[in-house]
User: Fold this.
Amino acid sequence: MPALRYPDTAPESTAASRPNFDFTNNKAGIQAVNPNLTRRRFIKGVIASSVAAASTNAGLRAAGAQDQGSGTVERLVSLNINGRVRRVDVLPQETLAYTLRYKLGLTGTKIGCNRGECGACTVIIDGVTNYSCSTLTQSVRGRAVRTVEGLQAADGTLHPVQQAFVDELGPQCGFCTPGQVMSAVALLEENPRPTREEARQAMSGNICRCGAYDHYLNSVMRASGQSS
Assistant:
């Protein structure tokens, strides 16, 4: 294979001169580099290619950043909590239970299983019970959220359900009690005089690890004005 040969002197660069990377075949059929290719032209060609590639990548990154910016979620949101509008900084994947406890200081809402099974985190959203540990805070903007702190009257008088729970000695350790109370309140607002079986069904989403289920059912029946 013939050796590559470079001219002794590099030709002056002109507007018409551009890097030439053409390959030619010699008599033996072996592909050889175009003898007009000089070291200077080669380096200039590499630099020009690098600049073009960098410009293209920069444009793609800028377009991607613009698309990402247009899809971001507003973090400073207004929440209707217990009839009061609260402004709070909320992450896109933040749960309502986390926001209530650690951003708004409403620690009556408990976090038990943190996967929507035990019911300790139950709150009422637009009249329907929800597990706040599996509800994103961003999803409740513009909706009415009630927690156990919002049940008692302004003068401190307990809600009838809360009072019935006290009278029937419903709580044992008390950890699940806020969620039990919220489920009972939602039930009685929809069905003021449920049967014991209806109350059992309505409260079935709340686990009591102390096993005080009969006490809680007695409390619901008392709050509805029926004998336990």
About this structure: Residues 170 and 214 are 8 Å apart (CA to CA).
